[in-house]
Every structure is written in C-alpha cells, then in structure tokens.
Amino acid sequence: MDHEADAHRTDLMTITRYVLNEQSKHPESRGDFTILLSHIVLGCKFVCTAVNKAGLAKLIGLAGETNVQGEEQKKLDVLSNEVFIKALVSSGRTCILVSEEDEEATFVEPALRGKYCVVFDPLDGSSNIDCGVSIGTIFGIYAIKDGVDPKIEDVLQPGKNMVAAGYCMYGSSCTLVLSTGKGVNGFTLDPSLGEFILTHPDIKIPKKGKIYSVNEGNAKNWDAATAKYVEKCKYPQDGSPAKSLRYIGSMVADVHRTLLYGGIFLYPADKKSPNGKLRVLYEVFPMSYLMEQAGGQAFTGKQRALDLLPTKIHERSPIFLGSYDDVEVIKALYADEGKK
Fold first, then answer.
1. 3-state DSSP call for residue 239?
2. CA 219, CA 131: separation in Å to the nearest integer?
3. Per-residue pLDDT tens digits for 203-228
4. Which top EC class is given (predicted)?
5. Neighbouring C-beta atoms of residue 12, cutoff 10 Å
6. H/E element holding 257?
C-alpha cells in the first residue's frame, strides 16, 4: 500500500457520498433514509469527540443513576443517549426509538414523525471508559408502512426485517461499520476533514477463523454444548492447531475483530443468566445482521438469530456469531445435545 500516495488522494468516498450513490440506484427513493443516516453519523461524530475528551472534561465517573439494566450509568452514557435521541428526533424521519438506556420506547411526536424505527445502544461497553478500551454505538433500523400509526409491535420484529444496521467504534480510530442489506462497508473518521472515509469496502469475514472470544470466567455455569465447543477450541482432536482466545469485554470491539479476522464470538446462556446477557434488539440483531451480510452466521443455541421474535424491547438472548464454519460446529454440538 502506497501510504504517501494515499495521503494525497483527492477522490475520497465519504459516507455521505456512498449513501447518496446507493440512493441513486433507487429512483423511487425520496432521500428519507439518507437523511436519517446522516443524523446517525452526526451523533457518532459528537460521541466520538466526547469520548476522546472524557478524561479532560470530567465526564468520567458516575452520573448517580442506574439504568434499566441495573448498570450504574456513566455520565457519557447519559450524554450519548441524549445526543442520539435528539439527533434522531430532529431528523424528522423516525417514529419510534428504543434505547438501552431508557426503560420505555420513545414515540416521536406526530409533527416530526417519519417511517423509521431505530433501536440502539448509545454507548456499549461504557464500563471500559476509564481504562481506554474501545467502546461503541450499535444501531438497527426498521421501516414501518407509510401512513400507519406507529405501535410498539413495529419494533418487536425479527432482525431479518431490519433495513440497515451498524456500529461505530471509538478506539484508536473512530470506525463506522454499516450494512444496508447489500454487504458490509467500513468507514474511518478523518479528524482533519471531519468526514467518514470508506476504508474497508465490502467486508467479508473469513470462512473459518483462528480466534474464539468468550468470557471464560463464566465457564462453570455453561451448558454442555458451549463447554464442549470451548474444549474443542483449546484441545482439537483432529490435529488442527488450537484456537487463540481474545476477549476484550466490549461487544463492539470483540465483534469488530471477529468481522475482520474471522473466528467466533460467544455470549452463551448460563446458570446465572439463563436467557443470555446481550439484548436482542440493539445488540444481538444488528451484529447478527452485519455478520450474515459479511458471509458469516449468527445462532442463538436454538435458531438463526435473525429469526428470533422478541416480545419485550429489552429482551435478552444467548448468541454465537462469526465465521460460517465455526458457527456450524457449535450448531452441530447443540443439535447433538438436543437429541440426548
């Protein structure tokens, strides 16, 4: 790669240009989706700046409240949530917003209503802020039929009905990974331009990976299939090399690495959390959508993750996602356990 030539490139594919190009392929499009995405991008830029300044601005530390998941809220959580709610409402293109930080869904007032429902986790992994580990925003978008009054059922849909999903990771660089149902693309924020530039076009996850990612501290509470799978990773019986363990504990960072390098990310159900720990609407679904669009798989231990029908907005589910062949192995183990 010629870095010098790259530094002087003038033909930059920004995320705005990319989305407008996609829009031009749909002559019937009114640009609503493009406007919505531009507001999400603005929210990501704002949060990225806030995260970078957190230590200086005394934004670290507790805001003194506890969110609906029983987690102590950091000031940055509260700020990020407000930023995204305001950005999404002001776009005039949304009707229902579901945030990890809010117990109830937000219904947008009729004057500002549009046809999109957005589900999001404004700052995933925020307990890692203090130690500089990558954190991120996760989002998924559903569309409702025109002229219909929005109901909570409009967001309680299987993940396969999403029209787009993505995440923005705030780490050594600020990276936005997006799918609108035609593959996955990664954009990196160029701070000097204030623009997201296409740096990872058409991301494809390797068919098989060398890494597994799981919190092994929960091993004593796992079910038999998960325990057997991790045993296979560490002590393969077929002569293949053992897999490496990498676990950051920030879903966005762990999934981002899995997407680029291959392998599998697991957050199984266990005796402590019989329904798993990750939330279906704004963690499991968007990440599963991206994995499938990149050629991988996502499985709950019982079914394809994107076929799951949630009944509550903060519902949880186990999840196994990553390289196609690696997820096949865990699916086979669960099928074997089911026969016993």
1. coil
2. 25
3. 999 999 999 999 999 999 999 999 99
4. hydrolase
5. 12
6. helix 251-261
Residue type, 294: A
Check: CB of residue 246 under 8 Å from CB of residue 255.
no
Q: Do residues 96 and 155 touch, judged by C-beta distance below 8 A?
A: yes
Q: Which CATH class for the 211-339 domain?
A: alpha beta
The answer to whether the CB of 98 falls within 8 A of the CB of 281 is yes
Structure tokens at 146: 């025109």
Question: 33, exposed or middle or buried, with CB in 10 Å at 0-12, 13-18, 19+?
Answer: buried
Q: Taking 70 as the threshold, does the pLDDT of residue 103 lie above it?
A: yes
Structure token digits, residue 106: 């937000």
Amino acid present at 265: F
With a pLDDT cut of 90, the percent of the chain lying above it is 79
Nearest CA-CA partner of 189 in 34, 7, 337, 41 = 41
In this structure, what token pair is assigned to residue 78?
């509260």
Nearest residue to 301 via CA among 324, 265, 278, 330: 330
The closest alpha carbon to 141, from 41, 60, 210, 223, belongs to 41
Mean pLDDT within 151-169: 96
What are the CA-CA distances from residue 276 to residues 46, 241, 255, 271 (Å)?
A: 31, 29, 17, 9
Select from 315, 251, 250 the least CA-distant residue to 281.
315
Which residue do the tokens 């996502």 mark?
298
Residue 1 — pLDDT band, cuts 50, 70, 90? very low
Contact yes or no for 80/121 (Cβ under 8 A): no
The fourth-level CATH superfamily of domain 3-200 is: Fructose-1,6-Bisphosphatase, subunit A, domain 1 (3.30.540.10)
Amino acid type, 118 = V
Q: Which of 16-20, 130-134, 323-327 has the lowest mean pLDDT?
A: 130-134
pTM given for the model: 0.92
Question: In this predicted model, what pLDDT tens digit does every residue of 302-316 receive, in sequence order?
Answer: 999 999 999 999 999
Which range among 92-96, 125-129, 149-153, 191-195 shows the weakest confidence by mean pLDDT?
125-129
CATH 3.40.190.80 in the chain is located at 211-339
Residues of the chain with CATH 3.30.540.10: 3-200
pLDDT for 55 beyond 60: yes
